[in-house]
Amino acid sequence: LAGTVPEEPRCTVERADASLTYSHFLQRFAFSRPVILSGITDNSAFRALCTRGKLLAAFGPSPVRLSTANTYSYRKVDVPFQEYVEHLLKPQDPARLGSDTLYFFGDNNFTEWGPLFQHYVPPPFRIPGTSPAYSFGIAGSGSGVPFHWHGPGFSEVIFGRKRWFLYPPDKTPHFHPNETTLAWLQHTYPTLPPAQRPLECTLRPGEVLYFPDRWWHATLNLDTSVFISTFLG
Hints:
alpha+beta; Jelly Rolls; nine-stranded mixed sheet; 12 strands; 28% strand; globular; Cupin_8; JMJD6_ArgDemeth/LysHydrox; cis-regulatory region sequence-specific DNA binding
């Protein structure tokens, strides 16, 4: 089935729980390696507001900005949120190029979405000299953003499962900028020798991934997923 992707049980990203202190986070992870954090926040109240029915009732007529799922040249398209949910929120077509795949992941209008974001409890850790900005998204199974990099941040799954692939800044992955993550997983990933494979893991609801500055990363939604990122700019 188009967009149906298997879950990889192996996880090569370090994990930490609520016992992780801020000083240990800064020392071990903030500037050097990704980490998956579990049990550091409780977003059950936010999750209750992110069901299909609640979101359509609150934001149905509101425009949302969709971006193409390619690496270097995002085309933007504005559509009503209800139209996106009812007509565009579908499994990824494996044959479709990134430039032809529309994806809702950020570009949120904070005047409209702000009341929802007020209920989100972000991770408690910060990088000195940065301030947080939220990026909220909803996407179908098999969709995702291909390899790219930017500043540090956190990403939490609210509904669904999201598979992550990460490379350090000095190890540029081999990928075509207009190929979707699903196509990369099907065509390139199986050819990689073990030493050239990325760090990877599948996030489930309530888990938060931290990625440091300039780390390459690609994402793949294994289900229809709701997620929110906290970018540290």
